[in-house]
Amino acid sequence: MTRIAHLSDLHFGAHEPALIDALCDAVEAAEPDLVVISGDLAQRGTCGQFSKARALLDCLPGPQLCVPGNHDLPHWNPVLRFTDGYRRFRRVTQGPTEPVWRNDTTALAGINTAHRMHWKRGEIDPGQIEHLRRGFDNAGDRLCIAVMHHPLEHAALNVDALMVGAGRLLAALPGMGARIVLSGHVHVSYIGPFTDAPEVLFVQNGTSLSTRRRGEDNLFLTLDTGPDCVTITRHVADGARFVPHRPERWSFAPGGWQLDEARMGQSRSATG
Length: 272
Ligand SMILES: [Fe+2]
Ligand SMILES: [Fe+2]
Known about the structure:
This protein is an alpha/beta fold. It has a single domain, classed as Metallo-dependent phosphatases (Purple Acid Phosphatase, chain A, domain 2), CATH 3.60.21.10. The chain is 20% helix and 29% strand. It is built from 6 helices and 14 strands. The strands form 2 sheets. Strands 1, 2, 3, 10, 11, 12, 13 and 14 form an 8-stranded mixed sheet that branches. Strands 4-5-6-7-9-8 form a 6-stranded mixed sheet, with helices on one face. Helix 2 packs parallel to helix 4. The longest helix is centred in the N-terminal third of the chain and has 13 residues. The radius of gyration is 17 Å and the shape is globular. One fe (ii) ion (FE2) binds next to loops.
């Protein structure tokens, strides 16, 4: 089993300061093998906001895999945004914008969907699909997980047009062996098979620290992965701590992902 702690949309600069220590404590207590952050570490991509994000990364356990979100581009510096818009992100995360990671049971590959020309809507180009394909090459029995900021499908909330290239990537994911997609951006969580690719599980996180909530409290997820199953737990802010809610166990079967019958009552619905 591999345990992944999935955080998203921290939005330092428009965040809940009282939750920072609670988030660190709860993630550390979960003892994850990997911490994933699916973008929007900062609110406006400023150095000051990224230094706060760095302080959080320093207190979270490692290893860590981070991809950028649209808010991580430097909002007040258009020259930097178009010449090297992800420089501050790379410096604070101390890694690439499209990282890969694997252990004996799980393989992850991230892509940067915060395109510098379509940063709010997001965009995927064919080279990024190839990057994911290479990330899952020779994965064997490992569970393959793609990580990106923008969602590939409308689910809990329809706030923006889907990013450019979303349909093309979703169509390609099953063929490259991807079983799960972790994303964020809309600040509402959702778990369920993709409508147009039910063999891929859509795990959309809410916001872990932002003050801009959309009817759902701040939260992070843990995923306990097996070869053909995953147990997902929402850890939801309650006062000054994060409280684990009832886990959902999903199994991969011919035809797609299925929620275990015993927990069908929590099926597919967004929380909050
Ligand atoms: Fe966000
Ligand atoms: Fe975003």
